Amino acid sequence: MGPAHPRVPHGHRPLDGARAVRNLPDYPWSPQLNAEPADQIRLLDVQALDVRLSQLAHKRTSLPEHAEVDSLTKDLSQQRDLLVAAQTQASDAAREQAKAEQDVDQVRQRAARDQQRLDSGAGMSPRDLANLQSEVVSLAKRQADLEDVVLEVMERLEAAQERVGELTERVSALEAKLADATSRRDAATGELDAETARITKERELVAASLPADLVALYEKIRAKQGGVGAARLYQRRCEGCRLELDMAEVNEIKAAAANRVVRHDNCGRILVRTADSGI
Questions:
Q1: Which residue intervals define the domain CT398-like coiled coil hairpin in the entry (predicted)?
Q2: Are the C-beta atoms of residues 271 and 47 closer than 8 Å to each other?
Q3: Which of 3, 107, 197, 234 has the most Cβ atoms closer than 10 angstroms to its Cβ?
Q4: Is residue 27 a part of any domain in this protein?
């Protein structure tokens, strides 16, 4: 690798076919690189593998199963919350019913005792008997009122229990759907991860066989140019930015040695020359 060239003054082209990247402040002047034509062509293999890895990463994040799992998880969470609320209502109603029935039983027992005393009338004055009879009547009304409360609570408990049953079925159905969607998602991501690992290994092997400075330049450009650091020059057109080279650029590349690493003035990508470059 030769020494770094000074920055070329505005309006002048670099000498010896070196490719300056004009009007792109993100690309500082870089030293000229030389690499065997075969290595430059193999750099396109690295680029193709990187494109495939990007495609796999996008496909992995875009799997429809992800959205399905997220939607089902949200629905399941909502239904579980509703189920807990319904179970709480049912539990509260059950306790309320037990308390109301206990109150009815206490009133019933007291009314039964008073009725026995009233029926015997032993040792009681007429006034006491009248008071006791009034209490028996009052207790009968109280018992009837409490029994109405018990019926009302029983109706609420039955409705709450039905709601619990419905929500339990919904939750069970959603859990089954979520388990299925999760299994399908995991299977799909597993296949993509396996292919990604295989291609990553292949990419590492190919990149390791190339000159380190060539790979370093490629990586730098790729990071700034949307994942594409090297492109084939096909019929005088850069396959990276899809623009056709002007004649001045074509003549520069023609004049450059076969092992010179050239870059497109427009996008800054490494241009790889092949038999189909049209120059």
A1: 46-226
A2: no
A3: 107
A4: no
Q: What is the largest CA-CA distance in the chain?
A: 136
- The contacts of residue 167 (CB under 8 Å, 6+ apart) are 79, 82, 83, 86
Q: What would the 3-class secondary structure string for 219-274 be?
A: HHHHHHCCCCCEEEEECCEECCCCCECCHHHHHHHHHCCCCECEECCCCCCEEEEC
CB-based contact 79:167 (threshold 8 Å): yes
pTM: 0.70
Each of the 279 residues of the chain gets a pLDDT tens digit; together they read: 333 333 333 333 333 333 333 333 344 334 589 999 999 999 999 999 999 999 999 999 999 999 999 999 999 999 999 999 999 999 999 999 999 888 888 988 988 887 888 778 777 788 887 888 888 888 889 889 899 899 999 999 999 999 999 999 999 999 999 999 999 999 999 999 999 999 999 999 999 999 999 999 999 999 999 999 999 999 999 999 999 999 999 999 999 999 999 999 999 999 999 999 998
In a domain, 236, yes or no: no
For residue 266, being part of any structural domain is answered with no
Domain extent, residue 183, equals 64-194
> Would you say residue 41 lies in a domain?
no
User: Position 232: which residue type?
Assistant: R
Query: 163 CB contacts (<8 Å, ≥6 apart)?
Result: 86, 89, 90
| Lateral strand order in the sheet of 270-273 | 237-238, 230-234, 270-273, 262-263
CATH, residue 171: 1.10.287.1700
